[in-house]
Amino acid sequence: MIDFKNVSKVYDNGTKALSNVNIHIDKGEFVFVVGASGAGKSTFLKLMMREEVPSSGTIRIKDYNLGEMKKRKIPYFRRNMGIVFQDFRLIPNMTVYDNVAFAMRVVGAREKDIRKRVPYVIKIVGLPQKANSYPNELSGGEQQRVALARALVNNADIIIADEPTGNVDPQMSLEIVELLKRLNETGTTVIMVTHAHDLVKKFDNRVIVLEGGEVVSDGMVEDGEIPIHSSSHLNHETKGKIKEKFSKKFGKKQKKEEPVQEGKDDREPDEEFLNAIISDTDSYRVYLEAEGQEQTAEAPEEAAGTAEDTEGGDAQ
Fold first, then answer.
1. CB-CB neighbours of 135 under 10 Å
2. Measured between alpha carbons, how far is 177 from 58 in angstroms, rounded to an integer?
């Protein structure tokens, strides 16, 4: 689904952001991309969202060749993606409902579809009682869940989470990742970019490590440790482990949630899912403890691509 082949990026000021990056991410994978400030994470995201183009190499996402993509096609391409940012980027004078509905309105969805879809997605992220609240009435974790609902509402094939736990406490950080993992289980591809190594170590997932613009390792978290081998010299055993880890998951056709159609409003999210992601329940605390995790103290069509998506972020 996502292919970076020999991708390098050098900015006009001479900054070398990425160097000969080769990454393949299959449909339905959950992948952490980690690295310190300046490692190339932001450039990696900008290339994926087609905010930037590579200086050399090719990037293919689904059926799109991003280097050859015409500007008028970019908004349509970005509709395949849902973006979640560290700073939430909610519209302060809109309610939770309208913040989520906005993402549908900018792509021209009908109001009757919006009225069906938006409450469903808000319920998925565990905030049905907050639909009429404004962002300043929500906690940081609740705001991040609204941002996630907005990313989900247009049935995106790919969720890109850019430091989604950067502005929330450790407990909520675990909840955000658990929610992303539950969404991934429905077949959505999830790429989470973060510098929080300690958080990543709590999850048995694939991790790509960037350092100085290069991929220095790519493998599975094992025994709470991020892989340290060089991705350019992955041995057959390591490759086999990665393939085995995901073969069952990707060998089967994933069931993707279908867009809401007129007259079809009977879908209900999984109740266990909802119970697991609502933070103020004792059952969720028990759930975390059982997992061995300690508790610590979008406007016109062009905007549909991401009027919010392209704000902020440094060159690397």
1. 19
2. 30
Q: Give the strand pairing for 81-85 and 158-162.
A: parallel
Encoding tokens for residue 287?
């759930």
Tell me the sheet residues that pair with 58: 5
Full-model pTM: 0.70
Q: What is the pLDDT of residue 307?
A: 40
Q: Provide mean pLDDT across the span 211-239.
A: 70
Q: Which amino acid type is present at position 139?
A: S
* DSSP-assigned letter for residue 259: P
- All domains of the chain, ordered by start, with CATH? 2-306 (3.40.50.300)
- pLDDT of 173 reads 86
Q: Which of 151, 162, 125 is nearest to 311 (CA)?
A: 162
Residue 23, classified by CB atoms within 10 Å of its CB into exposed (0-12), middle (13-18) or buried (19+), is: buried
DSSP 8-state class, residue 222: B
Average pLDDT over residues 110-132: 93
Strands 206-211 and 30-34: parallel
Residue with tokens 């077949």: 187
| pLDDT, average across residues 26-30 | 94
